[in-house]
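S1.2 Input.
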Amino acid sequence: MKPPEAKQPLPPSVRKYLVQVARESIVEYCTEGRKPTPRFPDPSCRVSRGVFVTLTQNEALRGCAGLPWPVLPLEEATIEAAVRAARDPRFPPLMPKEVPSVRLEVSVLTVPEPVEAQRALEEIRVGRDGLIVRWGEVQGLLLPQVAVRYGWDVETFLAHTCRKAGLPPEAWRWPNLHIFTFQAEIIHEGEETL
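S1.3 Output.
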């Protein structure tokens, strides 16, 4: 399905369901080595969306991965993002005994939109926007909450996104580098959604 044009919040029942799906996906993958089958209980779960799942353990990052572009239906993208986060290559694979101690956060993304480098400092808003930088086949992404967590200004946010892509921090100024912004609806596990 086509991504929604409006940036409407997800219904509370869907927010709760996505966190549940992410948790079930991690449990099933870590204990049985497979992904759950999507159930699509709400039409919004069939709409293609970008999704990231962030895992923390004792307040420290334990994994974060996802799909920035709307290439899969929301529920399938959440399952895929959760499994990828559980096997984030920056960390040892998540073990079944660790799963109960891991907290998760699901970020449902809007469709990334291009920003011209010369207008980036004026158009990007810390606290609202996440960033993607792309240079050829190389891409880096940071979620909106990352810049807030570290108290970065826009230029620092751009520099860290370039570093995430393996590029020099000033690469965001390159004429052939592409910058995209997106927003995220962030769903914390355990929030009261109903």
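S1.4 Remarks. The domain at 12-109 is CATH 3.30.700.20 (Glycoprotein, Type 4 Pilin).
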